[in-house]
Design brief:
Layout lengths: L10 E9 L5 E10 L1 H23 L3 E6 L4 E4 L11 H4 L4 H4 L2 H17 L3 E8 L5 E12 L5 E10 L1 H27 L3
Antiparallel strand pairs: 1-2, 3-4, 3-7, 5-6, 6-7
Length: 191
Amino acid sequence: SGELSRTRRFFEIAHNPIYEKDGTIIGVSVFASDVTERRQVEEELRESQLKLQSIIDYSPALISIKDLNGNVILANQSFSELDAPPLNELIGRNVFDLFPAEVAQQLWNNDLAALQADGPIRSEETVKHKDGAWHTYWTVKFPIYLESDQPFGICAISNDITERKRAEKALEESERFARATVDALSAHIAI
């Protein structure tokens, strides 16, 4: 005696009327196709996409993808800190519509440099936050490819280094002050 498998199956069903020559419906043809495997693959893909989206959204870095014309395809939740439209209004908009011309040009020039390099480039970029303060970001940009050898967009991953820049500046000022103090003291010391 054979055991019945209790695996859940999914089917796509198509049905079409069968007509007589005079147009009268005399029956229905039914075609069923087992799509269980496709549904499983789709569910695995959906789960994978949700996991990746969670990682992207909860990253403190700004993560975005723009198409080859500078239109935003993807942006994570960290963009809500910027002096820019709300996240739901970023998608599909061009970088030059989102930021002041000088900032947009800086961002776009770096996008183009990544495309030209055909690989990652690193640079500092400065953008304004909603509180009006300018922040400096260390950004890595690189072209994104699908299955062809032609890029379809540019990915940017940007980390806020504003505090580090402030600390570096304070250290430089402290070192200048210490050198000036030593120089002043040594000018007054006579042997």
